[in-house]
Design a protein that fits this description.
PyrdxlP_synth_PdxJ; globular; about 260 residues
């Protein structure tokens, strides 16, 4: 009997189009245009991280994305009063709360949901009451995921960066151990009623592998796709990514359309 599992979606992060723009100044390349091209090429949603230091995406980018997109906008942000207020103004489809440090190059590690206390719980509640789907970007840790469910998050996005780094470094044993953590975390979160997303550091091969986890419903990928777009174009890069995800999902007999 064929096993039926839910389809898997692709969210495309356009932050690093803005990184290139900001390196020189001016308006080009335009991350909003990149988002529109990504959607035309098959992206199911767009992610943009408005950092506190505005190093890539800017407030005006978020407002334009909210105005023009016909697919869900995932507003990635630190769990600060400023960002919550902006999210309540823009009302994106979803907010993904992430840890953020000024000195980091990219998001390092998962959100400390346990350490977030009542303040984080109140922010999750406030966003949820506004009709915004709240996701928490977490390490594949049992206690963090359980706490995410306790405070009312709708989604957890599993941080796949450590697994990808181990693979890149050729540390097969560590990579296998980390992937086991990811697989168990996906099952645990799903059993707690959370929707499971995954992202960070994924390429074609790792996206194919993670897409074969039945509990994972969405992958959010940015840096790799923007890098590949330099050589192959954004549409072609997204097409190849969708094909990789489809190969992974096909191992489970899953439907391919979102």
């Amino acid at each position: 009997m064929t096993r039926i599992v839910p389809p898997i979606r692709l969210g495309v992060n356009v932050d690093h189009v803005a990184t290139v723009r900001n390196a020189r100044g001016g308006a080009l390349p335009d991350p909003v245009r990149a988002a529109q091209l990504a959607c035309a090429a098959g992206a199911d949603g767009i992610t943009a991280h408005l950092r506190e230091d505005r190093r890539h995406i800017r407030d005006a980018d978020m407002r334009r994305l909210r105005e023009v997109l016909t697919v869900p906008l995932n507003f990635e942000m630190a769990a600060t009063d400023e960002m919550v207020a902006l999210a309540l103004e823009l009302k994106p489809h979803a907010c993904c709360l992430v840890p953020e440090r000024r000195e980091e190059r990219t998001t390092e590690g998962g959100l400390d949901v346990l350490g977030g206390g009542i303040d984080l719980a109140r922010k999750v509640e406030k966003l949820g009451h506004a009709g915004i789907r709240v996701s928490l970007f977490v390490a594949p840790d049992e206690d963090q995921i359980a706490r995410a469910a306790d405070i009312g998050a709708a989604v957890v996005e599993l941080h796949t960066g450590a697994w990808c780094d181990f693979l890149t470094a050729g540390e097969a044993s560590a990579a296998e151990s980390e992937f086991t953590r990811l697989r168990r975390a996906a099952v645990q979160g799903s059993e707690l009623g959370l929707e499971i997303h995954a992202g960070h550091g994924l390429d074609y091969a790792t996206a194919e592998t993670i897409a074969a986890l039945a509990s994972v419903r969405e992958l959010n990928i940015g840096h790799f796709l923007i890098g590949e777009a330099i050589f192959a174009g954004l549409e072609e890069s997204i097409r190849h990514m969708r094909e990789a995800m489809a190969r992974g999902r096909a191992r489970l007999g899953a439907p391919q359309a979102a």
